[in-house]
Design a protein that fits this description.
The protein has eleven helices and 15 strands. By secondary structure, it is of the alpha/beta class. An eight-stranded parallel sheet has the order 10-9-8-11-12-15-13-14, sandwiched between helices. Strands 1, 2, 3, 4, 5, 6 and 7 form a seven-stranded mixed sheet that branches. α4 (about 155-165) links the parallel β8 and β9 (about 170-175). The relative contact order is 0.16. Pfam families: OCD_Mu_crystall (PF02423).
């Protein structure tokens, strides 16, 4: 039986701890996780094993995902982790999030369960911070305008993570198929601490908004293109996060063709609908993808080369980033409790 956070101890042999969403929010600020990924992802990628995720259709519209990973280093990263995710897109009609998740962390040396934590909050934050790390290398440093396409549970995290990487952003437009959700998000995020210098605006027409934006960040389950390449201005950065299966598509072929394309990891080449479709239609070849996030961090791949070029980042998520995020949560908490 897991003990609550107030009773935790980093000592071996103790009961596993449960880390809820509010606790994760308090110990995993965007800047901390962004820094952690930038400093640890490259090295960790060589010692973390993460087989292809298990995906099981549990109904005509719902899916169960199992994402295991484990470290081969018992000294620097002595962990095994498994994330269990359910996706139920129709939950929007019930006013519930479409994605729910749990994450379990084990000691890789002894096999002991160390912690179980709210995987939904962990996923939202790690996904947003991966996009923010990519933006550090790919978006223009003087970016001022951000367009958020989608106003679901991931949208506020993406906005805040992008603002962390590009603090010069002072205008955020939010578009959603249901404008009421955009209005709600504008009202809520505008009241948060640190947002005083940012103008938030409901976007009714996506085309002119996309033409204004320095960064366009998409987090939807769309199966038809929402962002067209012809709308994007020279120098824009397109962040695609929502597509996780070949049938999904947040932008058209022109948007992919216009930009230098980077991915979070190679799974995006077979999972993200924008890329799978582009390959199938001959818009681009797999070897034309410019690189991945690890290559950018290591400096093996050059990110933005000039202000006027367009860049695209496609992210489908990875168990490696999950394990690193869980590591930071667990070690931050146990360090605080031991001091």
């Amino acid at each position: 039986m897991a003990t609550m956070i107030g009773n935790i101890s980093p000592s071996a042999g103790r009961s596993p701890i449960f880390i809820d969403a509010p606790t994760i929010r308090s110990v995993l600020p965007y800047r901390s996780l962004i820094n952690h990924l930038q400093t640890s992802l490259a090295a960790a990628s060589s010692v973390i094993q993460s087989p292809i995720r298990h995906s099981h259709q549990t109904s005509s519209s719902s899916t169960l995902l199992l994402m295991p990973s484990w470290s081969l280093s018992s000294t620097t990263l002595p962990y095994i982790g498994v994330k269990l995710v359910t996706t139920h897109p129709n939950n929007s009609a019930l006013n519930l999030p479409g994605v729910h998740a749990s994450y379990v962390l084990f000691n890789s040396v002894t096999g002991e369960t160390l912690a179980s934590m709210d995987g939904t909050e962990l996923t939202l934050r790690r996904t947003a911070c991966v996009s923010a790390v990519a933006s550090h290398y790919l978006s223009n440093k003087n970016s001022r305008v951000l367009l958020s396409v989608g106003a679901g549970s991931l949208a506020p995290h993406l906005i805040k993570a992008h603002l962390t990487t590009r603090p010069g952003i002072n205008h955020v437009m939010i578009w959603n198929r249901t404008s009421q959700k955009s209005k709600k998000l504008v009202e809520e995020i505008g009241k948060e601490s640190g947002m005083e210098g940012v103008r938030f605006e409901v976007c009714e027409d996506i085309a002119p908004a996309a033409a204004m934006a320095d960064i366009v960040s998409c987090a939807t389950n769309s199966e038809t293109p929402l962002v067209l390449g012809k709308w994007l201005k020279a120098g824009a950065h397109l962040d695609l996060v929502g597509s996780y299966k070949p049938s999904m598509m947040e932008c058209d072929d022109e948007a992919v063709k216009r930009g230098r394309v980077f991915v979070d990891n190679e799974a995006a080449l077979v999972e993200a609908g924008e890329l799978v479709g582009a390959f199938e239609r001959g818009v681009m070849k797999e070897d034309e993808v410019a690189g991945d996030l690890v290559g950018l961090i290591k400096g093996e791949k050059i990110g933005r080369k000039e202000e006027i070029e367009n860049t695209v980042f496609v992210s489908v998520g990875s168990a490696v980033v999950d394990l690193l995020s869980a590591q930071l949560v667990y070690e931050t908490i146990t360090t605080k409790r031991s001091n």
